[in-house]
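Batch manifest line 286
LIGAND: S-adenosylmethionine
JOB: complex structure
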Amino acid sequence: MTWLIFLALAAAIGGALWYLLIKTEGIYLGRGAVIWLYDLYAGRYDAIKQYDAADEDVYLAQPILERLDCARAPLVLDVATGTGRLPLALLEQPGFQGRIIALDLSRKMLARAAEKLAPFGDRAALLHHPAETLPFPDGAFDLVTCLETLEFLMGARAVLGELVRVLRPGGLLVLTNRQGLDARLMPGHTFTHEVFERLLRDDLGLDRVEVLPWQLDYRIVYARKPGDAVPVGARPLEEVWRCPACAAVDLVPVRDGWRCLACETLVPRGADGVIEAVRARRERAR
Ligand SMILES: C[S@@+](CC[C@H](N)C(=O)[O-])C[C@H]1O[C@@H](n2cnc3c(N)ncnc32)[C@H](O)[C@@H]1O
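JOB STATUS: finished
ARTIFACT:
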């Protein structure tokens, strides 16, 4: 009898751990758990996902470029870039002459992205920074993307508001919405496609919302910010970002990174080129 109770208890604990850590990737344990798990899996992420370059070309990069119309040199923000999937797909397109700023909160995922994006030099800037508060002014980007991530955030609606804020009027937003059994196993973190579409149209005021079949687990979503501002164009990071510690625009390049003239914070650049905004904020807070 004691053994039966012990076995039932072990099965219940094992099941709970599997659900919390594997099936739902830490989302019910908080942001720290999600990022810890991505750090842990960063070295195996690409092997697990097995993204195919030809598919990424046809199903990801080309449909985006078609929707960017004549803006072939846009400034792009990819939020939660992971190992750099979206920047790589765009930068490999011969017709793409833009620049990309890509951020993520997993430093180890960014280290993998840095290796893969190294051949593209300063056309891709990698920032260790959370999605929740974006260190950019309103309307700073022509294209904002956030793929396969909204379900892992603690406040997806607030992040969506941030993505729309930094998009210029007339700019393109590209998202994914999780579907299938896994989506149903993440209550409170996923939206039905109908609810997601209404959220983008009615709450965020976006135009031309398209929710299209894409992958088994996701639909892809394209939407426009109403209005028609002049394209931002392929500007370097220096021209658009703000100090991650105090949000001032006074960042000047120094030997190993940038210094904010307003609050004196040093934002270092790691040996792999990743910009250490999280470290800068932490050191400033001490
Ligand atoms: C499933 S991966 C998707 C990566 C990439 N967009 C892709 O399509 O391959 C989710 C990513 O979200 C990142 N992430 C999760 N929560 C985040 C947050 N609050 N801020 C920034 N990145 C976050 C994780 O570190 C991970 O790299």
